[in-house]
Specification:
The chain has 9 helices and 10 strands. The chain is of the alpha+beta class. The strands form 3 sheets. The protein has a 4-stranded mixed beta sheet, with no helix packed on it. This is SET domain-containing protein. Pfam families: SET.
């Protein structure tokens, strides 16, 4: 398991009546029952497998936090926090996979620290680097260990995604397509939208293995079509550098002429088409919908054409739907309120 792309922090928002359907996962509520088991995965050690048919957008696991390590934290201070955990938790963490060769550091560790624990100090650091999920907090980034989620193996076309959770500290893994009973659950350790050569290099250098999923196997028919899709997607991102800022938002939208906005809207549509062609890429659509929404609103402000407002409403609806899948409730509520205002023709503050 990797230090994955940081999750967006949930922002507080007031509750408003919603006209949008909730995802299948949210009907599970507090009575959620795990639909997975951990067992041997051929050639990969342990893995996570579905125990029953699991529909798209349903939760696979809600895994409680086992240990948190702040980014940049001194590794000895980290270890001192680790030894305060229950014995069973410590034992289970130390059983997690190690991505690098853990050397004998006893000769270089300061003698003020217990020498018998020197090995575990550095092993814990390695385990964290190999298995932790990166979670964004108000005080900074933390690598967080979840004992079940850490057993999920990699695929460049995973069938499950990490989603934000509302304040419980649990890590939620959600199906991004229908998963059959007895099928292995996978996630991506890296940027899955990168071309094969980049993916393989990162996996080899950091985790020491070569991915053999259908997207990476040159002999698999899917690999060629998916690679073409990713290269086309990469071109759209390169082309967007002139009109999007680092957060993926439209630069100086109020200064764009209508014809130029039309062209940018076409680029967003092409990117959306590419992202929705395969289940493993759909988690990126929310940012694209938001960018396209800004373009549609900018077009409407220039000419007040009703069709531009309708396009903006549709894009905002798609954004909210994506947020309900990947970010759950809180982050979508402010956009629901905005939707209600736009339906009334109120574009103040947009």
């Amino acid at each position: 398991m990797a230090w994955l792309k940081p999750m967006l922090k949930l922002q507080s928002a007031s509750r408003a009546p919603s006209r949008f359907a909730r995802s299948a996962a949210q009907h599970l509520g507090k009575k959620f029952s795990p639909v997975f088991e951990i067992r041997s995965s051929p050639g990969k050690g342990l893995g996570v497998f579905a125990t029953k048919n699991t529909p798209r957008n349903a939760d696979i696991m809600r895994d409680p936090l086992a240990f948190r390590a702040w980014k940049g934290e001194d590794i000895v201070e980290r270890y001192l926090g680790f030894i305060m955990l229950p014995v069973t938790t410590r034992q289970n963490i130390l059983k997690l996979s190690v991505g690098q060769t853990v050397l004998d550091y006893r000769a270089i560790v300061d003698e003020t620290y217990p020498r018998d624990n020197d090995y575990d100090v550095f092993k814990l650091d390695d385990i964290n680097n190999t298995n932790a999920f990166t979670i964004a907090h108000d005080t900074g980034l933390a690598g967080e260990l979840f004992l079940n989620a850490c057993r999920i193996n990699h695929s460049c076309i995973p069938n499950a995604d990490q989603v934000a959770n509302e304040g419980t500290g649990d890590l939620v893994m959600r199906a991004n397509r229908d998963i059959n009973a007895d099928e292995e659950v996978t996630t991506s350790y890296i940027m899955r939208a990168a071309p094969r050569e980049i993916r393989q290099r990162e996996l080899s250098e950091r985790w020491g293995f070569t991915c053999q999923c259908p997207a990476c196997d040159p002999g698999h028919p899917f690999s060629h079509s998916h690679e073409r899709r990713l290269h086309a997607l990469l071109r759209t991102y390169k082309d967007s550098a002139c009109y999007l800022d680092d957060d993926g938002r439209l630069k100086s939208a109020e200064k764009w002429p209508y014809a130029a906005l039309e062209q940018v809207a076409g680029s967003f549509r092409r990117r959306t088409e590419l992202l929705t062609e395969h289940h493993s890429l759909r988690s990126y659509t929310r940012e694209v919908y938001l960018g396209a929404f800004e373009v549609a609103i900018a077009k409407y402000k220039l000419r007040r054409v009703r069709s531009d407002l309708e396009e903006a409403l549709k894009l905002l609806e798609l954004t909210i739907q994506a947020e309900r899948v990947y970010f759950e409730e809180a982050i979508a509520r402010s956009h629901e309120e905005l939707y209600a205002r736009l339906e009334r023709g109120d574009i103040s503050g947009v």
